[in-house]
Amino acid sequence: MGKIKxxxxxxxxxxxxxxxxxxxxxxxxxxxxxxxAHHLIPKSKGGKSTVLLHSACHKQIHALxxxxxxxxxxxxxESLKTxxxxxxxxxxxxxxxxxxxxxxxxxxQLKSSAHW
Length: 116
Ligand SMILES: [Zn+2]
Ligand SMILES: [Zn+2]
Hints:
Blueprint: H1 2-10, E1 35-39, E2 50-54, H2 55-64, H3 67-72, H4 77-81, H5 84-93, H6 108-112
Antiparallel strand pairs: 1-2
Helix pairs in contact: 2-5
The structure holds zinc ion (ZN) (2 copies).
One zinc ion binds at residues 23, 25-26, 28, 53-54, 57.
């Protein structure tokens, strides 16, 4: 999984290297080591465009929403924000320090299915 993730990050064009990346979900700056690329439409569904998110925000998306639902209903940042569970998470994470260590734990079953 680490290898796949690194490849995903390498494919992101570096636009304005010095500008801090801001998470479109919780709208806070993303520390470098928390950067993760999310496919708005899952790769397995043919999606290509990615957005950069906090690893915590990213994991939460996949903890709450299946790939099918992502592809069909939550394939934009705006629609993701309308997801009740995710909106709740965003409200909560916003109250945490920026370097907050996420505590989402995936089940083994989820871990073994490569969705990014
Ligand atoms: Zn975030
Ligand atoms: Zn993702």
